[in-house]
């Protein structure tokens, strides 16, 4: 590992942690400030924070992070904001998956890796308020390193104006890095968050990138940061508007059915879920994205 990488690793991990802190603070403020509408007279939710640890096969330290989960709030039915920094060696199945995606030579001879990032999934009490997913991450091997990340909106009751706002904020944060980026990352999200066996998208899209490495680490990191910075201004106004709306039993039923789609996608297709379980990370942290309740009909 070069000295340059050590510095880059520290900067990236520190930034993911700072983004985590900002989001946790903003979400707890949403809970405290919810004064009108359904559940506004309930107790405000707070995050339960649990350190996570990962060990190598020989029992040595292999990193960890923080799992922050809020359950049963008056705005959030369940939301998880995880940050982690893990390292070690990739097992055979993880190596095979990585090689298939990246075509990286030398992985078998030297399967070391380092990864850091933030991952967030929010499932809401009010069916009119959209669920959401966001993550940003950095991955390193001795043979290559790259960034990934994005966010996507998952409403069970769609509002065209909410979708437009979410996408407009993403575009505004990406355009300074190149006008071609937003349409390319939007299309990538549409493809990635598609559920083949249901012949439909998981939600109304967003932006997504993976394996991003242009050769300019500073530019790639800056882009990754702006993907993270876009999240709160894209999402918070939607929640603030929708949590005041009343809902019916039919609305709640639609939400539970839609959550079934989310669970199917995360368990069958999501790369992050597969990688986390393959590399021995805390299963509760990996699977925190699953909704608290769902329904299949």
Task: Explain what you see.
This protein is an alpha+beta fold and 297 residues long. Helix content is 42%, strand content 26%. β1 (48-55) and β2 form a beta hairpin. The chain is globular and about 60 Å long. The model has no long low-confidence stretch (mean pLDDT 91).
Number of helices: 9
User: How would you write the strand order of the largest sheet?
Assistant: 1-2-3-4-5-6-9
Main beta-sheet strand count, sense and barrel state: 7 strands, antiparallel
Rg value: 19 Å
Helix content: 40-55%
Give the oligomer, counting copies of the same chain as homo and different chains as hetero.
single chain
Percentage of residues in strands = 25-35%
Unreliable residue stretches: none
Distance between the termini: 52 Å
The helix/strand series, from N terminus to C terminus, equals HEEEHEEEHHEEEHHHHH
User: What is the typical, i.e. mean, pLDDT?
Assistant: 91
Tell me how many strands there are. 9
Backbone structural class: alpha+beta
Q: Which geometry do the CA atoms define?
A: globular
Organism: Sulfitobacter litoralis
Enzyme class: oxidoreductase
Keywords: Heme biosynthesis, Oxidoreductase, Porphyrin biosynthesis
EC number: 1.3.3.3
Structure at a glance:
With 297 residues, this protein is α+β, with helices and mostly antiparallel strands. It is 42% helix and 26% strand.
């Amino acid at each position: 590992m070069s000295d340059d990488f050590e510095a880059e690793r520290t900067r990236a991990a520190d930034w993911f942690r700072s983004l985590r802190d900002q989001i946790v603070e903003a979400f707890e403020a949403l809970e405290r400030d919810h004064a009108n509408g359904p559940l506004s007279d309930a107790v405000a939710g707070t995050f339960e924070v649990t350190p996570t640890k990962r060990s190598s096969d020989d029992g040595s330290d292999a990193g960890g992070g923080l799992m922050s989960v809020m359950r049963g709030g008056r705005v959030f039915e369940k939301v998880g904001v995880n940050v982690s920094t893990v390292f070690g060696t990739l097992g055979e199945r993880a190596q095979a998956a990585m090689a298939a995606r990246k075509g990286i030579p030398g992985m078998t001879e030297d399967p070391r890796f380092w990864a850091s990032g933030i991952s967030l999934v929010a499932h809401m009490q009010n069916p009119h308020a959209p669920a959401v997913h966001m993550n940003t991450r950095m991955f390193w091997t001795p043979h290559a390193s790259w960034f990934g990340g994005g966010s996507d909106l998952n409403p069970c009751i769609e509002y065209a104006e909410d979708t437009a706002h979410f996408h407009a904020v993403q575009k505004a944060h990406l355009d300074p890095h190149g006008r071609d980026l937003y349409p390319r990352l939007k299309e990538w999200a549409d493809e990635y968050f598609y559920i083949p066996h249901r012949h439909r998208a998981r939600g109304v899209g967003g932006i997504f990138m993976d394996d991003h490495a242009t050769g300019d680490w500073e530019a790639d990191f800056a882009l990754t940061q702006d993907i993270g910075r876009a999240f709160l201004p894209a999402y918070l106004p939607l929640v603030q508007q929708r949590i005041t709306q009343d809902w019916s039993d039919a609305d709640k039923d639609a939400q539970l059915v839609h959550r079934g789609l989310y669970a199917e996608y995360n368990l069958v297709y999501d790369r992050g879920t597969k990688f986390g379980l393959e590399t021995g990370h805390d299963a509760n942290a990996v699977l925190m994205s699953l909704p608290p309740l769902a329904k299949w009909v």
